[in-house]
Hints:
The structure holds two protein chains of two kinds. Chain A has one domain: Orthogonal Bundle (MetI-like fold). Chain A is 71% helix and 0% strand. Chain A has 14 helices and no strands. Chain B is globular, with a radius of gyration of 25 Å. Chain B is built from 15 helices and two strands. Chain B has a domain of 198 residues: MetI-like fold, CATH 1.10.3720.10. In chain B, 42% of the residues are buried. By secondary structure, chain B is mainly α. Chains A and B meet through α1, α2, α5, α6 and α7 of A and α1, α3, α5, α6 and α7 of B.
Amino acid sequence: MSTTLVSRRPVSRRPARTGAAPSSRSRGKLGPTIVLLIGAFYCLIPIVWVITASSKSRSELFSTFSFIPGSGFLDNLQSLSSYSGGIYWQWALNSLIYAGGGALVSTLVSAGAGYGLAKYRFRGRNFVFTVILAGVMLPQITLAIPQYLLMSKLGLANSYWAVLLPTLINPFGIYLARIYAQASVPDETVEAARIDGASEFRIFRQVALPILVPGLVTVFMLQFIGIWNNFLLPFIMLSDDTKFPLTTGLYLLLNQGTGQPALYSLAIMGALLSIIPLVALMLFLQRYWKLDLISGSLKG
Amino acid sequence: MSSTVSSVRRPDVKVSPKARKGSLQPRVAPWMFVAPALALFMAFLLIPILYAVYLSFTRLKVTTGGAFGARTQVFVGFDNYVLSLSDPELLASLRRLATFGIISVPLTLGLALAFALLLDLPQIRYGRFSRTAIFLPYAVPGVIATLLWGFLYLPSTSPFNYVSRALGLGDINFLGLPGLYGSLANIAVWGGLGFNMIVMYTALRSIPGEIYEAATIDGANEWQVAWRIKIPLMTPALVLTFLFSLIATLQAYGEPQTLKSLTSTISFTFFPLMKVYRDAFGNDDVAGAAATSVVLAIGTLVISLLLLRVLQRRAFGEEK
Protein backbone atom coordinates (compact mmCIF):
# COMPACT_ATOMS: atom_id res chain seq x y z
CA MET A 1 0.00 0.00 0.00
CA SER A 2 2.76 2.36 0.85
CA THR A 3 3.97 2.35 -2.70
CA THR A 4 0.72 3.94 -3.75
CA LEU A 5 0.46 6.43 -0.98
CA VAL A 6 3.99 7.51 -0.44
CA SER A 7 5.93 6.82 -3.58
CA ARG A 8 8.13 9.72 -4.45
CA ARG A 9 9.08 10.83 -7.86
CA PRO A 10 12.30 12.59 -8.61
CA VAL A 11 11.58 16.14 -7.69
CA SER A 12 13.06 19.11 -9.38
CA ARG A 13 11.69 22.55 -9.92
CA ARG A 14 10.10 22.51 -13.31
CA PRO A 15 11.75 24.92 -15.68
CA ALA A 16 9.45 27.36 -17.40
CA ARG A 17 8.23 25.65 -20.49
CA THR A 18 8.79 27.59 -23.62
CA GLY A 19 8.58 24.72 -26.04
CA ALA A 20 5.36 25.54 -27.87
CA ALA A 21 5.70 27.52 -31.04
CA PRO A 22 4.13 30.99 -30.94
CA SER A 23 1.48 30.12 -33.51
CA SER A 24 0.22 27.05 -31.68
CA ARG A 25 0.34 28.95 -28.42
CA SER A 26 -2.10 31.63 -29.45
CA ARG A 27 -4.34 29.00 -31.01
CA GLY A 28 -4.22 26.62 -28.05
CA LYS A 29 -4.81 29.23 -25.40
CA LEU A 30 -8.49 29.87 -25.83
CA GLY A 31 -10.09 26.42 -25.67
CA PRO A 32 -8.59 25.18 -22.38
CA THR A 33 -9.08 28.56 -20.75
CA ILE A 34 -12.76 28.58 -21.68
CA VAL A 35 -13.30 25.03 -20.41
CA LEU A 36 -11.70 25.93 -17.09
CA LEU A 37 -13.76 29.09 -16.79
CA ILE A 38 -16.92 27.03 -17.40
CA GLY A 39 -15.82 24.77 -14.54
CA ALA A 40 -15.21 27.79 -12.32
CA PHE A 41 -18.61 29.21 -13.28
CA TYR A 42 -20.32 25.91 -12.42
CA CYS A 43 -18.68 25.87 -9.01
CA LEU A 44 -19.70 29.45 -8.32
CA ILE A 45 -23.40 29.04 -9.26
CA PRO A 46 -24.63 28.04 -5.78
CA ILE A 47 -22.38 30.62 -4.13
CA VAL A 48 -23.72 33.46 -6.25
CA TRP A 49 -27.24 32.13 -5.78
CA VAL A 50 -27.01 32.11 -1.98
CA ILE A 51 -25.73 35.70 -2.02
CA THR A 52 -28.62 36.98 -4.11
CA ALA A 53 -31.23 34.74 -2.49
CA SER A 54 -30.26 35.85 0.98
CA SER A 55 -31.14 39.40 0.00
CA LYS A 56 -34.69 38.49 -0.95
CA SER A 57 -37.73 39.06 1.17
CA ARG A 58 -40.01 36.10 1.71
CA SER A 59 -42.33 36.91 -1.17
CA GLU A 60 -39.49 37.79 -3.52
CA LEU A 61 -37.84 34.43 -2.85
CA PHE A 62 -40.70 32.54 -4.42
CA SER A 63 -41.66 35.02 -7.13
CA THR A 64 -38.61 36.70 -8.68
CA PHE A 65 -35.73 35.27 -10.70
CA SER A 66 -33.13 33.87 -8.33
CA PHE A 67 -30.05 35.75 -9.45
CA ILE A 68 -31.58 39.21 -9.10
CA PRO A 69 -30.87 40.73 -5.67
CA GLY A 70 -33.88 41.55 -3.52
CA SER A 71 -34.61 44.05 -0.80
CA GLY A 72 -34.73 42.00 2.36
CA PHE A 73 -31.09 41.37 3.29
CA LEU A 74 -31.13 43.22 6.61
CA ASP A 75 -34.58 41.92 7.52
CA ASN A 76 -33.41 38.35 6.95
CA LEU A 77 -30.27 38.94 8.95
CA GLN A 78 -32.30 40.38 11.80
CA SER A 79 -34.87 37.60 11.87
CA LEU A 80 -32.13 34.97 11.75
CA SER A 81 -30.32 36.66 14.65
CA SER A 82 -33.44 36.80 16.75
CA TYR A 83 -34.71 33.34 15.79
CA SER A 84 -35.25 31.26 18.90
CA GLY A 85 -33.28 33.68 21.09
CA GLY A 86 -30.28 34.03 18.79
CA ILE A 87 -29.59 30.32 18.63
CA TYR A 88 -27.89 30.68 15.24
CA TRP A 89 -24.93 32.48 16.80
CA GLN A 90 -24.74 29.79 19.46
CA TRP A 91 -24.45 27.21 16.66
CA ALA A 92 -21.69 29.25 15.04
CA LEU A 93 -19.80 29.43 18.33
CA ASN A 94 -20.28 25.69 18.86
CA SER A 95 -18.89 24.94 15.39
CA LEU A 96 -15.86 27.03 16.23
CA ILE A 97 -15.37 25.19 19.53
CA TYR A 98 -15.72 21.74 17.98
CA ALA A 99 -13.59 22.45 14.92
CA GLY A 100 -11.00 24.71 16.57
CA GLY A 101 -10.53 22.64 19.72
CA GLY A 102 -10.71 19.27 17.98
CA ALA A 103 -8.34 20.26 15.19
CA LEU A 104 -5.79 21.85 17.54
CA VAL A 105 -5.53 18.89 19.89
CA SER A 106 -5.65 16.29 17.14
CA THR A 107 -2.86 18.11 15.31
CA LEU A 108 -0.64 17.95 18.39
CA VAL A 109 -1.47 14.27 18.88
CA SER A 110 -0.73 13.60 15.21
CA ALA A 111 2.53 15.53 15.39
CA GLY A 112 3.73 13.46 18.34
CA ALA A 113 2.71 10.16 16.82
CA GLY A 114 3.98 11.05 13.35
CA TYR A 115 7.33 12.14 14.75
CA GLY A 116 7.62 9.07 16.96
CA LEU A 117 6.83 6.74 14.07
CA ALA A 118 9.14 8.51 11.65
CA LYS A 119 12.22 9.20 13.73
CA TYR A 120 12.59 6.20 16.01
CA ARG A 121 13.03 2.57 15.19
CA PHE A 122 11.35 0.39 17.69
CA ARG A 123 9.75 -2.98 17.89
CA GLY A 124 6.09 -2.78 16.87
CA ARG A 125 6.49 0.40 14.88
CA ASN A 126 5.21 -1.04 11.62
CA PHE A 127 2.38 -2.77 13.40
CA VAL A 128 1.25 0.46 15.06
CA PHE A 129 1.44 2.33 11.77
CA THR A 130 -0.51 -0.32 9.87
CA VAL A 131 -3.26 -0.44 12.47
CA ILE A 132 -3.59 3.34 12.38
CA LEU A 133 -3.74 3.35 8.58
CA ALA A 134 -6.55 0.79 8.65
CA GLY A 135 -8.45 3.29 10.78
CA VAL A 136 -8.61 5.66 7.79
CA MET A 137 -10.88 3.24 5.96
CA LEU A 138 -13.46 2.63 8.67
CA PRO A 139 -16.90 3.94 7.78
CA GLN A 140 -17.99 6.57 10.23
CA ILE A 141 -21.33 5.03 11.11
CA THR A 142 -19.71 1.81 12.21
CA LEU A 143 -18.07 3.97 14.82
CA ALA A 144 -20.71 6.58 15.49
CA ILE A 145 -23.40 4.23 16.84
CA PRO A 146 -21.19 2.33 19.30
CA GLN A 147 -19.46 5.61 20.19
CA TYR A 148 -22.85 7.02 21.05
CA LEU A 149 -23.81 3.99 23.14
CA LEU A 150 -20.51 4.07 25.01
CA MET A 151 -20.78 7.83 25.56
CA SER A 152 -24.26 7.36 27.02
CA LYS A 153 -22.91 4.75 29.40
CA LEU A 154 -20.37 7.30 30.59
CA GLY A 155 -23.10 9.92 30.85
CA LEU A 156 -21.41 12.02 28.17
CA ALA A 157 -23.99 11.73 25.39
CA ASN A 158 -25.55 15.06 24.49
CA SER A 159 -22.53 16.96 25.83
CA TYR A 160 -19.78 18.95 24.12
CA TRP A 161 -17.37 16.13 24.96
CA ALA A 162 -19.39 13.64 22.94
CA VAL A 163 -18.61 15.56 19.75
CA LEU A 164 -15.12 16.76 20.71
CA LEU A 165 -13.48 13.59 22.01
CA PRO A 166 -13.92 11.29 18.98
CA THR A 167 -12.39 13.95 16.70
CA LEU A 168 -9.14 14.10 18.67
CA ILE A 169 -7.86 10.98 16.94
CA ASN A 170 -7.23 11.53 13.25
CA PRO A 171 -5.51 8.55 11.59
CA PHE A 172 -5.03 10.37 8.31
CA GLY A 173 -3.39 13.27 10.18
CA ILE A 174 -0.95 10.87 11.81
CA TYR A 175 -0.15 9.39 8.42
CA LEU A 176 0.53 12.86 6.95
CA ALA A 177 2.58 13.96 9.96
CA ARG A 178 4.73 10.87 9.64
CA ILE A 179 5.43 11.47 5.97
CA TYR A 180 6.26 15.07 6.65
CA ALA A 181 8.54 14.29 9.60
CA GLN A 182 10.35 11.66 7.55
CA ALA A 183 11.00 14.06 4.71
CA SER A 184 11.81 17.22 6.64
CA VAL A 185 13.44 16.48 10.01
CA PRO A 186 17.11 15.53 9.39
CA ASP A 187 18.43 12.67 11.50
CA GLU A 188 21.76 14.43 11.87
CA THR A 189 20.10 17.36 13.66
CA VAL A 190 18.28 15.04 16.04
CA GLU A 191 21.48 13.12 16.71
CA ALA A 192 23.45 16.30 17.30
CA ALA A 193 20.91 17.53 19.84
CA ARG A 194 21.04 14.13 21.51
CA ILE A 195 24.82 14.26 21.78
CA ASP A 196 24.47 17.72 23.30
CA GLY A 197 22.45 16.08 26.03
CA ALA A 198 18.98 17.38 25.19
CA SER A 199 16.10 15.26 26.42
CA GLU A 200 13.95 13.48 23.81
CA PHE A 201 10.97 15.71 24.54
CA ARG A 202 13.09 18.82 24.25
CA ILE A 203 14.44 17.66 20.90
CA PHE A 204 10.87 17.22 19.71
CA ARG A 205 9.72 20.57 20.98
CA GLN A 206 12.66 22.75 20.05
CA VAL A 207 14.20 21.00 17.08
CA ALA A 208 11.50 18.99 15.31
CA LEU A 209 8.34 20.96 15.96
CA PRO A 210 9.49 24.22 14.29
CA ILE A 211 10.48 22.26 11.18
CA LEU A 212 7.15 20.44 11.17
CA VAL A 213 4.97 23.56 11.30
CA PRO A 214 4.17 23.87 7.56
CA GLY A 215 3.04 20.26 7.42
CA LEU A 216 1.08 20.61 10.63
CA VAL A 217 -0.79 23.62 9.25
CA THR A 218 -2.08 21.29 6.53
CA VAL A 219 -3.04 18.62 9.05
CA PHE A 220 -4.82 21.27 11.12
CA MET A 221 -6.72 22.72 8.18
CA LEU A 222 -7.85 19.34 6.89
CA GLN A 223 -9.11 18.31 10.30
CA PHE A 224 -10.70 21.72 10.96
CA ILE A 225 -12.66 21.54 7.72
CA GLY A 226 -13.47 17.88 8.35
CA ILE A 227 -14.98 18.64 11.76
CA TRP A 228 -16.67 21.84 10.62
CA ASN A 229 -18.33 19.91 7.78
CA ASN A 230 -19.22 16.87 9.89
CA PHE A 231 -22.89 16.13 10.21
CA LEU A 232 -23.31 12.53 11.28
CA LEU A 233 -21.44 12.66 14.59
CA PRO A 234 -23.25 15.67 16.11
CA PHE A 235 -26.50 14.45 14.57
CA ILE A 236 -26.19 11.19 16.49
CA MET A 237 -24.62 12.51 19.68
CA LEU A 238 -26.67 15.60 20.42
CA SER A 239 -30.34 16.10 21.18
CA ASP A 240 -30.14 19.55 22.78
CA ASP A 241 -30.19 22.10 19.96
CA THR A 242 -28.19 24.69 21.94
CA LYS A 243 -25.17 22.36 21.57
CA PHE A 244 -25.59 21.88 17.82
CA PRO A 245 -22.92 22.99 15.38
CA LEU A 246 -23.99 24.87 12.25
CA THR A 247 -24.49 21.76 10.10
CA THR A 248 -27.06 20.10 12.35
CA GLY A 249 -28.57 23.48 13.23
CA LEU A 250 -29.19 24.43 9.61
CA TYR A 251 -30.48 20.92 8.93
CA LEU A 252 -32.99 21.51 11.71
CA LEU A 253 -34.04 24.85 10.21
CA LEU A 254 -34.48 23.34 6.77
CA ASN A 255 -36.35 20.38 8.16
CA GLN A 256 -38.79 22.61 10.02
CA GLY A 257 -39.10 24.77 6.94
CA THR A 258 -41.06 21.98 5.23
CA GLY A 259 -44.03 22.99 7.36
CA GLN A 260 -43.18 26.70 7.56
CA PRO A 261 -41.71 28.04 4.32
CA ALA A 262 -40.94 31.28 6.22
CA LEU A 263 -37.96 29.47 7.70
CA TYR A 264 -36.48 28.98 4.22
CA SER A 265 -35.26 32.59 4.17
CA LEU A 266 -33.57 32.01 7.50
CA ALA A 267 -31.95 28.80 6.32
CA ILE A 268 -30.61 30.56 3.21
CA MET A 269 -29.22 33.48 5.23
CA GLY A 270 -27.77 31.00 7.72
CA ALA A 271 -26.11 29.02 4.93
CA LEU A 272 -24.50 32.18 3.54
CA LEU A 273 -23.13 33.29 6.89
CA SER A 274 -21.85 29.81 7.69
CA ILE A 275 -19.71 29.51 4.59
CA ILE A 276 -18.11 32.97 4.82
CA PRO A 277 -15.58 32.19 7.60
CA LEU A 278 -14.43 28.93 6.07
CA VAL A 279 -14.06 30.34 2.59
CA ALA A 280 -12.14 33.30 4.02
CA LEU A 281 -9.90 30.99 6.05
CA MET A 282 -9.27 28.80 3.04
CA LEU A 283 -8.37 31.69 0.75
CA PHE A 284 -6.16 33.21 3.41
CA LEU A 285 -4.32 30.00 4.22
CA GLN A 286 -4.10 28.75 0.66
CA ARG A 287 -0.41 29.53 0.37
CA TYR A 288 0.43 27.74 3.61
CA TRP A 289 -1.24 24.52 2.57
CA LYS A 290 0.98 21.70 1.56
CA LEU A 291 -1.55 19.60 -0.26
CA ASP A 292 1.26 17.89 -2.11
CA LEU A 293 1.51 15.96 1.15
CA ILE A 294 -1.66 14.17 0.12
CA SER A 295 -0.67 13.39 -3.42
CA GLY A 296 2.50 11.84 -2.02
CA SER A 297 4.71 14.15 -3.98
CA LEU A 298 6.15 16.14 -1.16
CA LYS A 299 9.12 18.27 -2.00
CA GLY A 300 11.53 17.05 0.62
CA MET B 1 0.42 -4.76 4.32
CA SER B 2 3.14 -4.57 6.91
CA SER B 3 5.74 -5.75 4.47
CA THR B 4 4.93 -2.89 2.12
CA VAL B 5 4.90 -0.36 4.89
CA SER B 6 8.44 -1.21 5.79
CA SER B 7 9.48 -0.46 2.24
CA VAL B 8 8.63 3.20 2.79
CA ARG B 9 12.04 3.79 4.29
CA ARG B 10 13.75 6.65 2.60
CA PRO B 11 17.42 7.26 2.09
CA ASP B 12 17.15 10.11 4.57
CA VAL B 13 16.02 7.81 7.35
CA LYS B 14 19.35 6.05 7.40
CA VAL B 15 20.55 5.88 10.94
CA SER B 16 24.16 6.30 11.86
CA PRO B 17 25.90 3.05 12.84
CA LYS B 18 26.16 4.15 16.43
CA ALA B 19 22.44 4.65 16.77
CA ARG B 20 21.71 1.36 15.10
CA LYS B 21 23.49 -0.42 17.89
CA GLY B 22 20.98 1.17 20.22
CA SER B 23 23.38 3.16 22.33
CA LEU B 24 21.71 6.47 21.58
CA GLN B 25 18.31 5.47 20.26
CA PRO B 26 16.10 5.46 23.32
CA ARG B 27 13.59 2.67 23.85
CA VAL B 28 10.93 4.36 25.92
CA ALA B 29 10.77 7.76 24.22
CA PRO B 30 9.08 6.64 20.98
CA TRP B 31 6.25 5.10 22.97
CA MET B 32 5.80 8.37 24.85
CA PHE B 33 5.26 10.18 21.57
CA VAL B 34 2.91 7.54 20.21
CA ALA B 35 1.06 6.97 23.50
CA PRO B 36 -1.55 9.77 23.28
CA ALA B 37 -2.51 8.71 19.76
CA LEU B 38 -2.64 5.05 20.74
CA ALA B 39 -4.78 5.76 23.80
CA LEU B 40 -7.24 7.83 21.77
CA PHE B 41 -7.19 5.24 19.01
CA MET B 42 -8.19 2.54 21.46
CA ALA B 43 -10.81 4.62 23.23
CA PHE B 44 -12.59 6.00 20.18
CA LEU B 45 -11.87 3.57 17.37
CA LEU B 46 -10.88 0.14 18.63
CA ILE B 47 -13.21 -0.21 21.61
CA PRO B 48 -16.28 1.10 19.72
CA ILE B 49 -15.56 -1.32 16.87
CA LEU B 50 -15.22 -4.26 19.23
CA TYR B 51 -18.35 -3.13 21.02
CA ALA B 52 -20.24 -2.99 17.72
CA VAL B 53 -19.05 -6.50 16.88
CA TYR B 54 -20.13 -7.70 20.33
CA LEU B 55 -23.55 -6.07 19.99
CA SER B 56 -24.04 -7.60 16.57
CA PHE B 57 -23.99 -11.07 18.11
CA THR B 58 -26.52 -10.29 20.86
CA ARG B 59 -30.14 -9.36 21.22
CA LEU B 60 -32.18 -7.82 24.02
CA LYS B 61 -34.69 -10.35 25.29
CA VAL B 62 -37.44 -9.92 27.83
CA THR B 63 -36.71 -12.57 30.40
CA THR B 64 -39.11 -12.23 33.32
CA GLY B 65 -42.35 -11.71 31.40
CA GLY B 66 -44.79 -8.82 31.41
CA ALA B 67 -44.39 -5.40 29.86
CA PHE B 68 -42.05 -4.32 32.62
CA GLY B 69 -39.95 -7.45 32.56
CA ALA B 70 -36.21 -7.08 32.83
CA ARG B 71 -34.41 -7.12 29.50
CA THR B 72 -31.12 -8.90 29.24
CA GLN B 73 -28.61 -9.20 26.48
CA VAL B 74 -28.42 -12.73 25.15
CA PHE B 75 -26.01 -14.22 22.68
CA VAL B 76 -27.73 -15.08 19.41
CA GLY B 77 -24.83 -16.04 17.13
CA PHE B 78 -25.20 -14.95 13.53
CA ASP B 79 -28.96 -14.33 13.72
CA ASN B 80 -28.59 -10.57 13.30
CA TYR B 81 -26.35 -11.03 10.28
CA VAL B 82 -28.81 -13.44 8.67
CA LEU B 83 -31.64 -10.99 9.26
CA SER B 84 -29.61 -8.03 8.06
CA LEU B 85 -28.35 -9.64 4.86
CA SER B 86 -31.73 -11.12 3.96
CA ASP B 87 -33.50 -7.79 4.43
CA PRO B 88 -34.73 -6.67 1.00
CA GLU B 89 -34.59 -3.06 2.17
CA LEU B 90 -30.83 -3.28 2.62
CA LEU B 91 -30.35 -4.69 -0.85
CA ALA B 92 -32.59 -2.00 -2.31
CA SER B 93 -30.64 0.71 -0.51
CA LEU B 94 -27.34 -0.75 -1.75
CA ARG B 95 -28.72 -0.75 -5.30
CA ARG B 96 -29.70 2.92 -4.96
CA LEU B 97 -26.25 3.73 -3.58
CA ALA B 98 -24.61 1.91 -6.49
CA THR B 99 -26.71 3.87 -9.00
CA PHE B 100 -25.64 7.09 -7.33
CA GLY B 101 -21.99 6.05 -7.14
CA ILE B 102 -21.78 4.92 -10.76
CA ILE B 103 -22.82 8.43 -11.78
CA SER B 104 -20.95 10.51 -9.21
CA VAL B 105 -17.53 8.85 -8.85
CA PRO B 106 -16.49 8.70 -12.55
CA LEU B 107 -17.88 12.21 -13.14
CA THR B 108 -16.04 13.70 -10.16
CA LEU B 109 -12.73 12.05 -10.97
CA GLY B 110 -13.01 12.51 -14.74
CA LEU B 111 -13.72 16.21 -14.41
CA ALA B 112 -11.06 16.62 -11.72
CA LEU B 113 -8.48 14.96 -13.98
CA ALA B 114 -9.51 17.05 -17.00
CA PHE B 115 -9.29 20.30 -15.03
CA ALA B 116 -5.97 19.34 -13.44
CA LEU B 117 -4.47 18.59 -16.87
CA LEU B 118 -5.84 21.84 -18.28
CA LEU B 119 -4.43 23.82 -15.37
CA ASP B 120 -1.04 22.28 -16.05
CA LEU B 121 -0.96 23.55 -19.63
CA PRO B 122 1.59 26.32 -20.04
CA GLN B 123 -0.65 28.63 -22.08
CA ILE B 124 -3.59 28.77 -19.70
CA ARG B 125 -5.03 32.12 -18.63
CA TYR B 126 -6.93 32.98 -15.46
CA GLY B 127 -5.57 29.68 -14.10
CA ARG B 128 -5.35 30.97 -10.55
CA PHE B 129 -8.91 32.23 -10.58
CA SER B 130 -10.30 28.98 -12.00
CA ARG B 131 -8.30 26.87 -9.61
CA THR B 132 -9.52 28.82 -6.58
CA ALA B 133 -13.14 28.89 -7.78
CA ILE B 134 -13.20 25.14 -8.41
CA PHE B 135 -11.58 24.42 -5.04
CA LEU B 136 -13.98 26.72 -3.18
CA PRO B 137 -16.84 24.17 -2.70
CA TYR B 138 -14.46 22.09 -0.57
CA ALA B 139 -15.00 24.67 2.16
CA VAL B 140 -18.77 24.22 2.00
CA PRO B 141 -20.11 21.44 4.25
CA GLY B 142 -22.06 18.71 2.47
CA VAL B 143 -25.20 19.60 4.37
CA ILE B 144 -24.94 23.27 3.36
CA ALA B 145 -24.13 22.29 -0.24
CA THR B 146 -27.26 20.15 -0.26
CA LEU B 147 -29.27 23.02 1.16
CA LEU B 148 -28.03 25.36 -1.59
CA TRP B 149 -28.55 22.90 -4.44
CA GLY B 150 -31.84 21.83 -2.86
CA PHE B 151 -33.21 25.32 -3.34
CA LEU B 152 -31.82 25.36 -6.87
CA TYR B 153 -33.82 22.15 -7.47
CA LEU B 154 -37.00 23.12 -5.61
CA PRO B 155 -39.61 24.15 -8.22
CA SER B 156 -40.74 27.25 -6.29
CA THR B 157 -37.25 28.73 -5.94
CA SER B 158 -35.24 27.16 -8.78
CA PRO B 159 -33.78 29.53 -11.37
CA PHE B 160 -33.59 26.62 -13.82
CA ASN B 161 -37.30 26.01 -13.50
CA TYR B 162 -37.91 29.75 -13.73
CA VAL B 163 -36.17 29.78 -17.09
CA SER B 164 -37.74 26.57 -18.35
CA ARG B 165 -41.20 27.85 -17.39
CA ALA B 166 -40.53 31.13 -19.12
CA LEU B 167 -39.61 29.17 -22.22
CA GLY B 168 -42.87 27.27 -21.94
CA LEU B 169 -41.15 23.96 -21.19
CA GLY B 170 -42.69 23.45 -17.76
CA ASP B 171 -40.93 22.33 -14.60
CA ILE B 172 -37.83 20.18 -14.58
CA ASN B 173 -38.29 17.37 -12.10
CA PHE B 174 -35.01 17.48 -10.17
CA LEU B 175 -36.39 15.85 -7.05
CA GLY B 176 -38.37 12.95 -8.52
CA LEU B 177 -37.12 9.70 -9.97
CA PRO B 178 -35.00 9.12 -11.96
CA GLY B 179 -33.68 12.70 -11.99
CA LEU B 180 -33.04 12.54 -8.27
CA TYR B 181 -29.96 10.36 -8.79
CA GLY B 182 -28.49 12.96 -11.10
CA SER B 183 -29.35 15.70 -8.62
CA LEU B 184 -27.68 13.88 -5.74
CA ALA B 185 -24.66 13.03 -7.90
CA ASN B 186 -24.38 16.67 -8.92
CA ILE B 187 -24.10 17.71 -5.28
CA ALA B 188 -21.36 15.12 -4.77
CA VAL B 189 -19.51 16.20 -7.92
CA TRP B 190 -19.74 19.86 -6.93
CA GLY B 191 -18.40 19.16 -3.46
CA GLY B 192 -15.65 16.69 -4.42
CA LEU B 193 -14.33 18.07 -7.68
CA GLY B 194 -12.02 20.73 -6.25
CA PHE B 195 -10.24 18.63 -3.67
CA ASN B 196 -9.53 15.82 -6.12
CA MET B 197 -8.42 18.31 -8.75
CA ILE B 198 -5.92 19.87 -6.34
CA VAL B 199 -4.50 16.49 -5.30
CA MET B 200 -4.05 15.54 -8.98
CA TYR B 201 -2.67 18.96 -9.86
CA THR B 202 -0.02 18.88 -7.13
CA ALA B 203 0.97 15.41 -8.36
CA LEU B 204 1.34 16.84 -11.87
CA ARG B 205 3.44 19.76 -10.69
CA SER B 206 5.99 17.44 -9.16
CA ILE B 207 6.77 15.70 -12.45
CA PRO B 208 10.11 17.09 -13.64
CA GLY B 209 9.74 19.27 -16.71
CA GLU B 210 12.68 17.66 -18.54
CA ILE B 211 10.54 14.62 -19.17
CA TYR B 212 8.14 16.65 -21.29
CA GLU B 213 10.89 18.49 -23.06
CA ALA B 214 12.24 15.31 -24.56
CA ALA B 215 8.77 14.37 -25.75
CA THR B 216 8.08 17.82 -27.18
CA ILE B 217 11.32 17.75 -29.10
CA ASP B 218 10.24 14.40 -30.51
CA GLY B 219 7.14 16.17 -31.81
CA ALA B 220 4.53 14.99 -29.31
CA ASN B 221 1.53 17.29 -28.90
CA GLU B 222 -0.15 18.13 -25.58
CA TRP B 223 -2.68 15.30 -25.93
CA GLN B 224 0.04 12.74 -26.41
CA VAL B 225 2.05 14.16 -23.54
CA ALA B 226 -1.05 13.98 -21.31
CA TRP B 227 -1.98 10.42 -22.27
CA ARG B 228 1.42 8.86 -22.55
CA ILE B 229 3.40 10.68 -19.88
CA LYS B 230 1.35 12.68 -17.41
CA ILE B 231 -1.48 10.25 -16.66
CA PRO B 232 0.79 7.22 -16.18
CA LEU B 233 3.02 9.23 -13.84
CA MET B 234 -0.02 10.41 -11.88
CA THR B 235 -1.19 6.87 -11.14
CA PRO B 236 -0.55 6.99 -7.36
CA ALA B 237 -2.58 10.19 -7.03
CA LEU B 238 -5.35 8.71 -9.20
CA VAL B 239 -5.50 5.55 -7.11
CA LEU B 240 -5.62 7.59 -3.93
CA THR B 241 -8.41 9.89 -5.13
CA PHE B 242 -10.40 6.93 -6.43
CA LEU B 243 -10.11 5.19 -3.09
CA PHE B 244 -11.15 8.29 -1.16
CA SER B 245 -14.11 8.89 -3.49
CA LEU B 246 -15.23 5.31 -3.11
CA ILE B 247 -15.07 5.44 0.68
CA ALA B 248 -16.90 8.79 0.71
CA THR B 249 -19.62 7.36 -1.53
CA LEU B 250 -20.14 4.30 0.65
CA GLN B 251 -20.53 6.64 3.61
CA ALA B 252 -23.00 9.03 1.94
CA TYR B 253 -25.38 10.19 4.60
CA GLY B 254 -25.61 13.94 5.24
CA GLU B 255 -26.57 14.86 1.69
CA PRO B 256 -29.51 12.47 1.15
CA GLN B 257 -30.68 13.04 4.74
CA THR B 258 -30.76 16.80 4.15
CA LEU B 259 -32.35 16.59 0.72
CA LYS B 260 -35.03 14.41 2.29
CA SER B 261 -36.41 17.60 3.88
CA LEU B 262 -37.32 18.83 0.41
CA THR B 263 -38.64 15.70 -1.24
CA SER B 264 -40.65 12.70 -0.21
CA THR B 265 -38.96 10.58 -2.89
CA ILE B 266 -36.13 9.96 -0.43
CA SER B 267 -37.30 7.37 2.08
CA PHE B 268 -35.94 6.71 5.56
CA THR B 269 -33.97 3.80 4.16
CA PHE B 270 -32.86 5.40 0.89
CA PHE B 271 -29.13 4.76 1.41
CA PRO B 272 -27.59 2.01 3.59
CA LEU B 273 -26.39 4.35 6.32
CA MET B 274 -29.82 5.96 6.56
CA LYS B 275 -31.25 2.52 7.11
CA VAL B 276 -28.66 1.79 9.82
CA TYR B 277 -29.57 5.02 11.56
CA ARG B 278 -33.29 4.28 11.30
CA ASP B 279 -32.81 0.77 12.70
CA ALA B 280 -30.71 1.97 15.63
CA PHE B 281 -32.64 5.04 16.68
CA GLY B 282 -36.04 4.79 14.97
CA ASN B 283 -36.72 1.10 15.51
CA ASP B 284 -34.62 0.69 18.64
CA ASP B 285 -32.88 -2.26 17.03
CA VAL B 286 -29.29 -1.49 17.96
CA ALA B 287 -28.13 -5.08 17.49
CA GLY B 288 -29.48 -5.24 13.95
CA ALA B 289 -27.94 -1.85 13.15
CA ALA B 290 -24.62 -3.03 14.55
CA ALA B 291 -24.71 -6.15 12.37
CA THR B 292 -25.49 -4.12 9.25
CA SER B 293 -22.77 -1.59 9.99
CA VAL B 294 -20.20 -4.33 10.59
CA VAL B 295 -21.16 -5.84 7.23
CA LEU B 296 -20.74 -2.42 5.59
CA ALA B 297 -17.39 -1.85 7.30
CA ILE B 298 -16.05 -5.22 6.20
CA GLY B 299 -17.38 -4.59 2.71
CA THR B 300 -15.61 -1.22 2.56
CA LEU B 301 -12.33 -2.67 3.79
CA VAL B 302 -12.45 -5.61 1.40
CA ILE B 303 -13.31 -3.43 -1.60
CA SER B 304 -10.56 -0.92 -0.69
CA LEU B 305 -7.89 -3.57 -0.23
CA LEU B 306 -8.84 -5.51 -3.36
CA LEU B 307 -8.86 -2.32 -5.34
CA LEU B 308 -5.47 -1.28 -4.04
CA ARG B 309 -4.04 -4.68 -4.81
CA VAL B 310 -5.40 -4.83 -8.36
CA LEU B 311 -4.40 -1.28 -9.19
CA GLN B 312 -1.03 -1.63 -7.56
CA ARG B 313 -0.21 -4.74 -9.50
CA ARG B 314 -1.18 -3.08 -12.73
CA ALA B 315 0.51 0.23 -12.06
CA PHE B 316 3.56 -0.85 -10.17
CA GLY B 317 4.15 -4.26 -11.65
CA GLU B 318 7.80 -3.51 -12.19
CA GLU B 319 8.31 -2.81 -8.49
CA LYS B 320 7.31 -6.29 -7.43
